[in-house]
Every structure is written in C-alpha cells, then in structure tokens.
Design a protein that fits this description.
Length: about 80
Amino acid sequence: MKGERTTFASAYLEGEIVVEPGVFHPAEAEQAVLPLLAAEAERFRGKRILEIGTGSGIVSVYLCHLGAASVVATDILPAAVAT
C-alpha cells in the first residue's frame, strides 16, 4: 500500500496510535466522535461493544479507556486490522 506508517498523538488517550498506510486517519474521530463519547461515558461503562469499520481503531481504544467490558473492532481493510 502507498504511503508510510504514521503516528497520531491523541489528547483523549494521552498517547499515540500507529496508523498504517491507507487507513482512515484518527484526527477526525478525535475531534468529532471522542468528545461525544466522553460526554456519554457512563453509557459505555461495563458494556460489550462492536465497532464495524474501525479504521485506525481510536474509537474502540477510547471505549476501552472509558470502561467498556469488551470491544470488538472489525474492518474489511487488512491495514486497518493491522493498525
């Protein structure tokens, strides 16, 4: 796949995510989705979550951070699964 592996520093995760080439970059989710999840954090605590089309995986990782009991992240793109 074209491009290079990059890293994304997440303020919500207080760390970095390695993103494989061709995978949807986590910046948009960091700005638009993670704040919504943070505002509703109690909804996810202890729950089992399925994310379809995970891309970089930042949403799934953050749901774990919020206390989800388990998260299954799926994607059709092998590079996304590797990420």
